[in-house]
Amino acid sequence: MLKNYFKIAIAVLRRRKFFTFISLFGISFTLTILLVLTAFIDKVVGDNYPDRKRDRSLYINRLEQKGKDMSMSGALSYYFLSHYAGSMKTPVKMTIFSGFGGTNTYVNNKKIAVDYKYTDANYWDILEYDFLEGKAFTKQQVDNAEKVAVISEDIKKAYFGDVASVVGKFIEADNVKYRVIGVVKDIPITSYMTYSQIYLPYTVSKTDYKDKGYGGGYSAILLANSSADVQKMHDEYEQLVKRIPITTKGISVMYSHANSYLASYVDTGREDQSGVILVITVLGTFVFLFMLLPTLNLVNINITRIMERSSEIGVRKAFGASSKTLVYQFIVENIILTLLGGIIGIVLAFIAIQILNNANLIPNLVLSVNLMVLFIGLIICLVFGLISGVYPAWRMSKLNVVTALKAQ
Amino acid sequence: MFKHLFKLIWNKKKQNFLLMSEILISFLVIFAVFTLMAYYYNNYKKPMGLDYENVWVVNYNNAYATKSTDSLNTYYETLRQTLKAMPQVSELSFCSDNVPFSQNTWQGGMTVKGKKIDHINEFAVEDSYDKTLNLKIIEGRWFNKGDAVAKNKPIVINDELKEEIFGNEPAVGKLIGDDADKNKMRVIGVIQGVKIKGDYLPSGYGQYQRADTGSFHGFGKIMIKVTPDADAAFEGHLYKTLANYMKNSDIEIEHLTNKRTSTNYFSVVPIIVLSIVSCFLIINVALGLFGVLWYNINKRRGEIGLRRAIGATGKSVSGQLVSESMLVATLSLIVGTFFAVQFPLLNVFNLQAGIYITAIILSIIFIYLLVLVCSLYPGKQAAAIYPAVALHEE
């Protein structure tokens, strides 16, 4: 039966080539845009290089202090994280690292803008960077405040040029010479928690990391023994924050959370406004509005196409086909059409992604059509097919046999 | 004639309803895009309000550890003298973090004559600030040393804030500040608004206060105007000088020209993406409209043939079909305009009414053109129907 419908569908598609073209154009284009969008989201929040242990990690990157007339929100101080978060029992490991800051360095009268970040030694255990050469700094080196640096591939090329190995060479940044001990694979700036071009031990930081204020420039990742412990770790931190004494005048309440990667990625910096809900609303509205027009268009065209076949419907009805069978047939036909459009859409998305990658809008952000994205595309396709197929099919099924035949 | 056309449309209301809702949504999408474009264009044609070429921004963190204001002032005054002694430096000014084209903003608000004014950008500036950026003074003057002893704190505002508070009246010499505040500030000058967020965004309200003795505690940027011959070698030299002087600070030198480019990039990229997406949406809709109209005409061959047979010219047949679709478009445009007009009426997003009205007019013209183009060919085809052939088929 299905095979029969398939044959009919292909025959119908070939009969009215112009309409087929319009439908395919609408479906494939819409799908292309959605696929590129999902590929982008997937890359930005789904790519887990270098933090491959996300399922058992929690991220602390914000402290909001609120009083009657004032509020402050931002990253935390090294003191706060090491002293309070460091006293927690559940995490097996914790790393504290700064956000990235910018500075310049000058080589042969050429300016290079570099981003740098301070980390501790645990950073390299929790986050699994791909080392192209050399290795990370150790706890010993951090404690001794040795001027060592792990640099990214980009900055290696920009600073040293095309050389085989740079380990042991010196890089000057911010007027200080650091000995390069490792080179890691690049990370796009969209992974802002782990992105940097030069990684330095926090002990060489020029700003005082011993400051006892709560606000500062540092974040932390807590690693649990297993993913089952994550909830426990989350609760422990919640309890802990409640007990921390407030030292700033005018502040009455403090908020800080150990969140999953996604929740901390989209954090708005305000307790009363959840980033996750905001992002979902904005994205959902966009996708809905964006899909509404092509869907309406498809419904319009499908009605036209189906009405054109009223004589066929009349004959089939006259010979005893029930409305249900006919609706079923038309929906199947429509899904075949949508899937066809889907295949074209995937090809187009692939081309669009290649173009975007070559344009290099965001350095090191390489989009790819992965299985997840393909799967989402397929689902979207089917939903699309169903939506634009149901209404015309329903309209058609109400067609009276006599009217349908008379149209002949 | 119109009554007749209405009847024709009404008879096929179900089919036309879908067509109309499609036109309606296209109208709303186009309206959104045109509003954004009109807004950007409106801002773009306003003057920049500053010279950004050859101005460099030095970021430092205030790491000189002292609680004493005097020694802090001496520390930075020495740096100022060192920098000014360089031949390539023509002017410099220490300032708060919210330099032009940066992500940082400091905003406050005040209630004037019972009216609350929010989002006033506040800048702490030095006497050399206007020369460094070459600000255009419209009224009054910029700060000078004499302002240190003024009874009321002197203040310079930009033209947008002046217009909001004083309208067309002159502002210089007047006192402003929160209604409840007894220590009001005296306006000594009005400058042209500086588009601090790039070419495509408005300058917003601006209020400039003179840096006082303790200001170095809060500063983190130096703006340096250099001569046109300042090159990378000089920049390296400047960098070394700064880094050697401020040993405990991270130094970064940025150029305002680059900062402007990247700020503009963030405004322009979304509108490019939006335009491309809506372009394809419109092509999609246009093809759909075209297809549906074309099909309708084919289905009405009998009717058209009959009309031709009783003497209608080809022109009047195609004219009827085109005006039918235009009428359908008009109906949905009326509904669409009803929604769109709510934006200026309710003052959504705080945009000027003129921007919305321009956008509404442009979108209406656009939709009419779109429908016209899509119905011309089917109309022409209808005009070519021979009555004999059409009636024979029937």
From TrEMBL, chain A:
Uppermost EC category: hydrolase
Record's GO cellular component terms: plasma membrane
Source lineage: Bacteria, Pseudomonadati, Bacteroidota, Sphingobacteriia, Sphingobacteriales
Record key words, sorted: ATP-binding, Cell membrane, Hydrolase, Membrane, Nucleotide-binding, Transmembrane, Transmembrane helix
Topology of the protein relative to the lipid bilayer: Multi-pass membrane protein
InterPro entries on file: ABC3_permease_C, MacB_PCD, Macrolide_Exporter_MacB
Localization, UniProt: Cell membrane
Organism: Mucilaginibacter gotjawali
EC number(s) on file: 3.6.3.-
The protein, known as: Macrolide export ATP-binding/permease protein MacB
Pfam families: FtsX (PF02687), MacB_PCD (PF12704)
TrEMBL record, chain B:
The entry's keywords: ATP-binding, Cell membrane, Hydrolase, Membrane, Nucleotide-binding, Transmembrane, Transmembrane helix
Annotated ranges, domain ABC3 transporter permease C-terminal: 276-387
Main location: membrane
EC primary class: hydrolase
MacB-like periplasmic core domain span: 18-232
Compartmental location: Cell membrane
Superkingdom: Bacteria
InterPro entries: ABC3_permease_C, MacB_PCD, Macrolide_Exporter_MacB
GO cellular component: plasma membrane
UniProt topology in membrane: Multi-pass membrane protein
Listed EC numbers: 3.6.3.-
Family (UniProt): Belongs to the ABC-4 integral membrane protein family.
Protein name: Macrolide export ATP-binding/permease protein MacB
Gene: macB_23
